[in-house]
Each structure stands twice: as structure tokens, then as C-alpha cells.
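Researcher: Last one for today. Full complex below.
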Amino acid sequence: MTSHEPASPSLLGRLTGRSRPVRTSRDVVVLHDVSKRYPNGRLALRDVDLVVPEGDFVFLVGPSGAGKSTLMRLLIRDELATQGHVVVDGNDLAQLKRRAVPKVRRKIGIVFQDFKLLPRKTVWENVAFALEVTGTPRSRIRPAVDRVLALVGLTAQAEQVPNQLSGGEQQRTAIARALVHDPRIIIADEPTGNLDPVISWELIQLLLRINELGVTILMATHDAEVVTALRKRVVALEEGRIIRDELGATYHRED
Amino acid sequence: MLVFALFSIRRAWQGFWRNALMSLAATLTMVLMLTLLAGFFVLQNVLLASLSYVEQKVEVVAYIENTATQEQVDALVSQVQAMPEVASVEYVSRDQALANFRAQLQAQGRPDLTANLDQNPLYASINVKLHDPAQLNTVVSAIHDDPIVRSVINIQALVDRVLTFTGIVRTAGVVILGIVGVIVLFIIVNTIRLAVVARAEEIEIMRLVGASDAFIRWPFVFEGALVGLFGALITLGMLALAADPLSKAMVNFFNVLPIELGSVGRDTAALVLGTGLGVGVVGAWVSVRTYLIR
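Model: Here's the assembly. Have a good evening.
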């Protein structure tokens, strides 16, 4: 996928046939000359430049401590860059007022290795939670949750609580929750890290489908097999620097 | 706005009951601390009432010469009455003084020998009550120079000692109440903080899915208020049940001191309810804030 792809209507719009104003294609994520130094003095990112056009599927690879998680935390403005610009969907995060941060976060769906589901809520409630806490009226929550649960294939499990589910189902619940705000981009931090290979592949298939619906995906992973098989764009980090940024690439450098 | 308010209150209610154990712990801590606070508050009030009773007892007694005419006495009384330090003036005639003395003897069960006297040996007096016993000296010196005044009982030393004592007790009472208040505050805020920390994961998810600060904060603030309200109501219920036997015991104990405790009940209720709600809300606000500022 490239930035020259034609404009795409929103995900939920596509799912329901209800279309929103057409979005113009542009870069969803832009990092320009970004460095991040933590208060303890550790330099986690150095002079990172990264442009992710809308609709891209990007693998972020590299050893633990290379800066993958820091980069993701910068994107959701959990941390601010020490230097440089981080722009998400046209918003320069450093310029963003505190009050505007939640609105930008709603354009980003986040998926973690450890799922981060609420154990006492059902699958349905976990997904609905994301809408409730952002002030969505109840009448609009029900159809939206039903839709994303159908998309990830969890309609039958809607009333179960997380520990009744398999790891793959729990992660699909997390993806449904990430999707329910109709985000521009999904950021997944090692989403298959706790899953066995077969389940991992199912999950990757789901992410690919979501990507085909027009949602940009940025996925950090250690799973060399998946990365190499899919031949997507690969961004490799090492000691806080981008050492490789290739289209149709493999997990390891091909020399 | 309505969606927000309903959401916050519903979530507060759910949050309270979903973490029933934590909420119970917080509420019971609240009850314990509020009872402690209320106990000290009531004690403080009893103490203050007793002190002002003691201080009311301070009065200036001036004996009048037997030669004084009624006009002179009236003039003195109205002159004293006009002084700003004076609360009330009572004239006790010689006959009345004797009657009082006889009544006192009778009350004490001692033989009354006054009938054997060929004349009344007592002097008439004016008894002056003061607004503030500290002003004793001013009043005494003003009366002392009047020609019809025979003598003024000098209780300056005694009054000074009483005033020093009541002053110390008052200050100590306020200081102790203050210290107890601060301790109560810290313990309750800490308990509520624990309840919030137990939900750190939920708060983190709320932030990640883009909940605004208000949506994260207010359910917890309402929940804190709920803990405060329940704690205060339980405390007041217990106090109401205990009030009657306690006050009877107190009257028995202090039966020499007819203490005025009119508004203490209302004040205590206001203190308990106000502290409970206030600390619940502030505690929750402060605890959640830790998660919001980043």
C-alpha cells in the first residue's frame, strides 16, 4: 500500500454501509528527528524519522530495549519527545493541549501483549467500556459493539468473561475494543507474544483484514516467521536508531 | 452533560459494589475515624461548657456600709451597671443576706443559731457578674473607691489561677482536636487511595482508549463521596443510639455542673457529615490525580 491509494471511507462506515465524509489520504504518523531521553538519563530513541502513510501495514522489529515500546508510547502521548516532532493524524503532539489528548487517542487503537482486559467484565462489556468512558450515548454503544464483535468473530462469546476465553479470543477482544472507536491506526505491541503459532497466524489474518478495510497498522513483534512470510514494510530499531526501513522485507537483514 | 453525570454516578455505584471488600474497608475506616473525631469534638464541647460555667462563678462582691442610704446604694448600682465590663448587678440587703445564710445552714443540716443574735451582723452587698473574668481588676478598683463601699473581696489571685488553668485546657483541647483531625484525614485519604490503586488497571485502560480526565476522575470522586456519606451516616446512627445513655452517664458524672449542651448534637452531625463527604471527595480527587498528570 502507498500513500497514493484513493480515499477510503471509515471502517464502521464500510461495515454498515453508512459512510462518513470521505477521508483524504495522508500520512497517519510522522516522526521527524525524534529523540527521547528518560529522566533517568537513558536515551531510548535517537534522531528517528518515520513516515507511515494511511493504509500501511508496518512491522516494527528489533531486540528488547531497542526503543519499540518508547516509540509507541510517544504515539499515544503517554510520553513526550525530548526533541523533534511527533505528528499523529495531523496533530503535533507536543503542541496539543492536555484537553485535546483524549480525542487524538481515540484515533489510535492500542493492543498489548497482555491484552489488558478487565477481568470482571464480559467480552461485550469490555468493548463497550471504551465507548462508555468516552461519553458515547447508550443507544449508539450497542450497535457499534455488536458490529466489531462480529468483525473479530466473537459474537458467540459476547457474554463470557476473559478467563473463560482462550488467549487468542482474549486478544481478539482487545482488538475489538481497539476498533470500536473507528481508529485511523492500530498500534499493536507484540500482540502475538503470549499466543502459540497457530493462534498467532489467526490473529495476523484478522489484522490483515482490518488493514484491508483501510486501517493503518503498526505492529511491534519478535515473530520472525510472520514478518518474513508477509513481506510487508519492516522498520528495524536498534539502540534507539532506525537501522533499516524496507518495503516487502524480511525479519532479518537480507545481505 | 446528562450522559456524563449519569455515567459517573452509575460507575461510582458499580465501582463501590464491585469492589465490595475494598469499599467496606474504606467505609469502616471512615466510621472509626469519624467516631474518634466526633468523640473528641463532644468531649471538647463538654470541656468548654464546664470551663465557662466555672468562669461564670467569678463575681465581685462589695460590702456596703450600714450607714449608706438607699439613694447612695441605687446610685452605686446604676453606676456599676453602666460599666461595659459588667454583665449584671445584684443588690443583696442585710435581711436578705441573713435569710441566705440561714437557708445555707439548713441545706447543710447545721444548727441555726442566728436566732440568738440580738442584731443582724451581716452587711448588705452588691454582687457583680462580669462578661469576662479577666476584667476583674478594672471593676474592683472602680467600686473600691466609692465611700459607701466597706470592702471588696479580693479574689484576684484565685481568678488568675482559674483563668490560667482554663486557658491551658482550652488551648490543649483545640490542639488535640486538631491533631486528631489531621490523623483522621491522613488515614481516610490513604484508605481511599488504596481503593483507587486497586483499580489502577481500569484507569490505565480508560486513558488508553481516550477517556477524558473528567470521565476518569468523577466516577472516583463520586465513589469517594459515597464512602464518605455511608461512613458518616453509619457513624451518626451509632452516635444517635449511644447519645442517650451517654448523656445520662455524663449528667450523673458532672451532676455538680449543669452544662449547657444545646447545639452540640447538631454541630457534631454537621462535623461528621462534612468531614466524611469532604475527605471522601478530596481523597479520591487527590488519588486519581496521580494517574492523570502525565
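Residues 2-54+162-292 of chain B form one domain. The beta strands of chain B are 59-64, 86-92, 124-130, 149-152.
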